[in-house]
Amino acid sequence: MSSSSIPFNFAEWPPSLSPEQQTTLIQKATTRALATGLLYLPPGYPLESPPPQAAIHAPLSLFPAPFSRESFEFAQEIQSLYNVLYSHIAMDTEFLDEIMGAEKGVGRVDDFIGELWKGWKVLRDSNSVPQPLHLGLFRSDYLYHLPPEGEAFLKQVEFNTISVSFGCLSQRIAELHRQAPTLPLHLMLSTSYFNSSPHLKLENLPKNDTIAGLAKGIAAGHAAYVSNGGSPSSKILFVVQAGERNVFDQRWLEYELLEKHSIHSIRQTFEELITSSSVDTSSSSLKITPTDSPNESIEISVVYYRAGYMPHEYPSQEYYSTRFKLESSRAIKCPTIPLQLAGGKKIQEVLGRKGLVERFLPGVPQSQVDRLRKTFMDMWGLDEDSRGAVGDVTSTSTTDSASPSPSAPPPTSSESFGTQRARAEHATLVLKPQREGGGNNVYKSDIPAFLDGLPAHEREAWIAMRLIEVPQGLGGWLIRAGSLDYGGSSDKSRAERAVKAEVVSELGIFGWALFGAGKVQGEEEVGWLVRTKGKDSNEGGVATGFSVLDSVLLV
Fold first, then answer.
1. What is this structure's pTM?
2. Which residues define the annotated binding site for Mg(2+)?
3. Biased-composition ranges for Low complexity (predicted)?
4. Which end of the chain has fewer CB atoms within 10 angstroms, the N or the C?
């Protein structure tokens, strides 16, 4: 009997191990992670430091996370449609002005979104956007929805359009659980997981080539820039955060661009770019002065943001002005400001309203649109002031999506209907602001008190989302990030770094798109990521310390 025909019980995962087997797997997993670049810089590493002299392995899972084969393949297939959808949203200026702008939309009450939108509008109004092309590296995140009644299906958590992380490390963790041609001492071939489960077969552990795929997207942007008159020797600018611990996830992309595409890169922070960047007044070329070569001027083909998605990264107007300066150049931005705005949670909520997906996907068969809409979860804005404005986005476009939940209260107070509904149904909800990076959401029992303190005028910046009902009883072994505590090197201390817990696993699918002037020039689905967290943790951002990197077991 093949492993694919053997019934899978989520509540019986992971397989049992003896203490000795557990120690062996932990040792093999952590040493392989160190050997293959599944790394972080250690906590407290000085910002003004010499080249790194130490690194620790990233937090990781000992066993891969089970996902339905059908659901996994569906998520891969639908990514191209998502790539196209968000490309068209980013090109619809009128829509973004209405939903995210500082005159009509979210930007009126969210200062960060408002500043970005206002800077973009000034550039538009002064004809200072010389580059029509946008480049997006995307990640669509999902949880497996398994309600007590109804159909089990993948539901989208969010769609990310800026600084999508862990693409490179996700490939490394997949190789750890599966195999890699350059270092075959991986868990599957070296131990067969001690034959602990018939499902742990190579055929159930999919390959993941995210590094090559993401680099291909950036290289496509570079090629487009050069073909339109840019310098063949131009470079990719990585805009990075000071003190970035997740630097190796970025470095693998740099290495791939150099070794497979012969494209050089330069890394700078916003603070450095304040003085090092300039835009040529005649050609609109973006020029950067490297910190190690003050007499050199480097032309930039693609600005790739691994920073710039949180308000604290713009501590003064100088930082916003620097962002707008980069936006005003003919370098291709990944992402542009409109594409960053398109990734807002409010956009995700509004897409659930009847007919809006179809607006951005003209010519796409309704059956395909319905498949995409099936990944939507019930969402609404806290500022919605009527039952008709609060949509049930779990229905397809053939159903009236404006029908409210039966438990929604009648509009009897001065609060908006959306806020009243969030109070009444808080036990099944999460509230989300227009932020990336983790640690920003409000969950369940914390919601009523949060709403008590939220000024009415700020509600427009928040959306309520029905919590996805994940499989119950699923377990995992979570290995904490490495440590430089050399006193804890015994087998006992290694075992204590592994925690067996009931877990939730989130699947992310990567894609890229190059688009502009109303057309998508190229797009692809390029790989996947799994992050697993303890079930009592509400957030899922690996870099924020709430979860571990994982890979897929197809069941």
1. 0.90
2. 158, 160, 436
3. 394-405
4. N
CA separation for the pair 303, 9 (Å, rounded) = 46
- Number of Cα atoms under 13 Å in the Cβ half of residue 129: 18
The residues annotated as belonging to the active site are 139, 158, 160, 165, 345, 432, 436-437, 531
Annotated binding-site residue numbers: 139, 158, 160, 162-165, 244-246, 250, 306-309, 345, 432-441, 443, 465-468, 506, 531, 533, 539, 542-543
Kindly give, in sequence order, each residue whose CB lies less than 8 Å from that of residue 202, ignoring residues fewer than 6 positions away.
178, 179, 188
How far apart are alpha carbons 41 and 52 in whole angstroms?
8
**pLDDT tens-digit profile of 254-311?**
999 999 999 999 999 999 999 999 999 999 999 999 988 888 999 999 999 999 999 9
Annotated binding site for substrate: 139, 162-165, 244-246, 250, 306-309, 531, 542-543
> Which residue has 């159930």 as its token pair?
204
Side-chain-side CA neighbours of residue 548 (13 Å):
32
- Per DSSP (E only), the strands in 444-551 are 463-466, 475-479, 498-516, 519-534, 548-550
Buried b / exposed e along 94-124 (16+ C-beta atoms within 10 A): ebbbebbbbeebbbbbbebbbbbbbbbbebe
**Angle in degrees, 0-180, between the axes of helices 366-373 and 69-90, rounded to the nearest 10:** 110
